[in-house]
Amino acid sequence: MLFGRKKRVVERLLIVEDEPLIAFDNERFLGDEGYVVVGTFDCVADAVALIASGASIDLVLSDISLADGSGLDVARAASAAGLHVLFVTGDCPAAAHGLGLGWLAKPYALRNLTQAITIIDQLVQGETPKRLPEGLTLFKREA
């Protein structure tokens, strides 16, 4: 197909969010957008257990403040497993910059979430994004 959509490599998502309404909205909306949500958890322990299980995950969407700790711990586990992380949180500490590809600031519109995931997909494929959605900050990556 000459004018078809480019195949995305980020398809399987892990959502780590302790606000139930946000977690539910994200899971439903992203599923409707064609993503596969492999898990939605509200705590570090469950998210880390899924990551450690070797489940097929392309991107971890993680809040920082979680029921039993910090999303930074989730990101450390994801990073150790070779997984990409996008923080979705109100305030992102400097310590997150070395653990994730970027940060989408809360509150965000759901369309900005899908746009942010598309940007992460472009980065993973070695492309340079042309325009970032509102609220998305990309972290500098070492060459």
How does this model look, in words?
With 143 residues, the chain is α/β, with parallel strands linked by helices. Helix content is 33%, strand content 22%. It has four helices and eight strands. The strands form two sheets. A six-stranded mixed beta sheet has the order 2-1-3-6-7-8, with helices on both faces. A two-stranded antiparallel ribbon has the order 4-5. Helix 1 (20-32) links the parallel strand 1 and strand 2 (36-41). The model has no long low-confidence stretch (mean pLDDT 93).
The major pleated sheet works out as: 6 strands, mixed
Structural class: alpha/beta
Please give the radius of gyration in angstroms: 14 Å
Write the H/E string, N to C. Answer: EHEHEEEHEEHE
Measure the end-to-end span: 34 Å
Number of strands: 8
Helix content: 25-40%
- Mean pLDDT, as a whole number? 93
**What is the beta-strand fraction?**
15-25%
Sheet with the most strands: spatial strand order = 2-1-3-6-7-8
Number of helices: 4
Uncertain residue ranges: none
Quick one: overall form? globular
